[in-house]
Amino acid sequence: MNYRHAFHAGNFADVVKHLALAAVLLHLRKKDAAFAVIDSHAGRGRYDLSGAEAQRTGEAEGGIARLASLKDSGGALGEYLALASDGASYPGSPLIAAALLRPQDRLVAIEKHPEEAGQLKAALIRTPRAQVEVADGYRRFGAHLPPKERRGVVLIDPPFEASDEFEAMARAFADAYRRFATGIYLLWFPIKSAAEANAFVGEVLGAGVKKALRMDIAIDVPPSPDGKARLAAAGLIVVNPPFGFADEMRAALGQVAPLLGARCTVSELAGEGAG
Length: 275
Ligand SMILES: C[S@@+](CC[C@H](N)C(=O)[O-])C[C@H]1O[C@@H](n2cnc3c(N)ncnc32)[C@H](O)[C@@H]1O
Hints:
- This protein is an alpha/beta fold and about 280 residues long.
- It has helices at about 10-30, 50-55, 75-85, 95-100, 115-125, 135-140, 165-180, 195-205, 245-260; strands at about 35-40, 45-50, 90, 105-110, 130-135, 150-155, 185-190, 210-220, 235-240, 260-270.
- The radius of gyration is 17 Å and the shape is globular.
- S-adenosylmethionine binds near residues 41, 116 and 158.
C-alpha cells in the first residue's frame, strides 16, 4: 500500500468532493424515505491535521484551513464546514456521511487496507447504522446495489495508484449503473492530463447516463520541497445530480475558490442544459 489519504486530507480536492457529498446528503434528507450511502474506497474516516503526514505535505493548509471565514454560510457549504473545520482533525467521506444519516438511513463503507479499515471501525463505533467492510471496493460494492431503500448515493473515490484505475472505475461504474440507474453517483478523479480526464468522462457517459454534471477544481501548485509532482487539478462527475445542485455548487464554489486561489467550474454533461 503506497497511497495514504492522511497526506492529502482536507486539500483542495477533498473540499470539492466533500462539499458535493454534503449537498447530496442534504438533498436526500428532504424526503422522509430512508436512503443508503455506499462508499467504495472509504479511507480511515478521521485524519489528524497535526500528524506527521498532514504536516509533511501541508495540503490542508492550502485547503480546508483557508475556509474558516465561511463557516457561517448557509446550505451545504455551512453544513460541510461545521463538520470539517474543527482545526485539529478532518473528517473523511464516511464520517461526513455518518454525521448526516438519520435513524432510518445507513452507510456501507468499504476499505481494502486492514489498518485504515480498523481506524474507520473505531471512528464509526457510535454509529450503529454504519457498516464497515474490509474488502476490495470494486469487487464488493455492486453487491449492495440496488440498495433495499432504492434511494441513495454511491461514492467511488479510489487512490489512482494503479495504471488502469480509470478503466477499472469506468467498468465498475457501468456495472453499478446497470443495477441502480436512479442512484446518485459521485466519481472522483485526478486531472493530470485533460485528454485522459475527458476520455474517462466519455466512458462514464457511455454507460447510458441520462443526467450528469462535472465539477473541476484547479490550483497553482508551488514547487514541492521533495521534488515530487503534486496534484494541481481534480474533477468530480455527479451522475443524477439533485434538482438545484449545479446552481448551489456554483454559488458555494464562487465563495470557496478565491480563498483557495482556485479555478472552479461546474458544467452539465448530459441532461437538461448540457452541451
Ligand atoms: C482517496 S482515499 C479515500 C478517501 C475517502 N473516500 C474520503 O473522501 O475521505 C482511497 C482509499 O481507498 C483505499 N483503497 C485502495 N484500494 C482499494 C480497493 N481496491 N478497495 C477499497 N479500498 C481501497 C485506500 O486505502 C484509501 O484509503
